[in-house]
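Figure 2 data, in text form.
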Amino acid sequence: MLDNLSNQTIYKQQLHDVIDCLATAIEVKDEYTHGHSGRVADMSCDIASAMGLKDRYLDYVHMAAHLHDIGKIGISETVLNKKGKLRSNELAQVQMHSEYGYRILSKSPALRPIAKIVLHHHERWDGKGYPCGLKEKEIPLGSRMIAVADSIDAMTSQRPYREALSWDFCMEEIGRNSGIMYDPYVVEIVQNLYHSWLQMAS
């Protein structure tokens, strides 16, 4: 029994190590996302914990958040690191990263639940997201959490085309898009976590 628990712990640690390596690989390719996946993973886990999720699903959310941008490996570095506004064909390339990520992660049976969360992290509550146009609770819960965490980190981080936005402005935008882009319940949880995140960021 103890040996089985030990083996499970070792396997889980090895899986997390592989995920960290994959997340680092995309950060090497995309110079502007350094640390992004880790911050999104931490925020997503905070959201999941605040919603009462635990054990395996909490692990799924954490790993999916770490790997939500892994599909950018299939996107041209010229497009990823472009400092100006993307053309329509370039934007279409970037939007393929969700599907590329799904294809990569689906190769492993152990990562298929994570792959589905990654596939849908750019869906919108109103059904106007991508790649499948899912809406409301059709979107996996983990994807809905990552969508908000991803947006928060994107807004509060410096980008090639703009300076970092303030946390106050960011939270106004998140609140304004509750029930449009984001799950209203996830937004409510995020608003309760906002001050603790702000303290850690400052």
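Caption note: The chain has a mean pLDDT of 89.
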